[in-house]
Specification:
By secondary structure, this protein is mainly alpha-helical. It has two domains: 11-39; 43-96, no CATH class. The chain has helices at residues 11-33, 35-38, 47-59, 63-68, 85-90, 92-96, and strands at residues 71-73, 81-83. Strand 1 and strand 2 form a beta hairpin.
């Protein structure tokens, strides 16, 4: 009888297994730690999202969401910061940056 060896795995199978394992690790880390920590370059600006949220808060007359809820602003050029829709629509410095947040007349009480 001859000494027969078992068939070994091909190189392409080993590469695919390693690639699959790397993808699985990245997905697990992304969903558990958050995608912003794993790949911060994926989303450099959230101005459109904030603009939509502020417009919705104004149209629904949601005083808390427009006047008090702090939103994390990332515009891609300045350091990220927190501001309310009211601050983004009335603060001269923030308005000059051109975020395009419209004012919501008489929704926020004046101090």
């Amino acid at each position: 009888m001859q000494n027969k060896k078992g068939q070994g795995m091909s190189t392409s199978t080993i590469i695919l297994l390693i690639l699959g394992l790397v993808i699985l690790v990245v997905l697990v880390l992304g969903f558990s730690l958050g995608w912003a920590k794993i790949a911060p370059w994926l989303s450099s600006s959230n101005i459109d999202t904030i603009q939509t949220g502020c417009d919705s808060a104004c149209s629904m007359q949601s005083q808390f969401d427009f006047c008090s809820r702090a939103r994390e602003v990332k515009d891609g050029t300045n350091d990220k910061f927190e501001a309310t829709c009211y601050q983004l629509s009335t603060n001269a410095t923030l308005v000059a940056r051109g975020y395009g947040i419209s004012t919501c007349a008489d929704l926020c009480p004046t101090a």
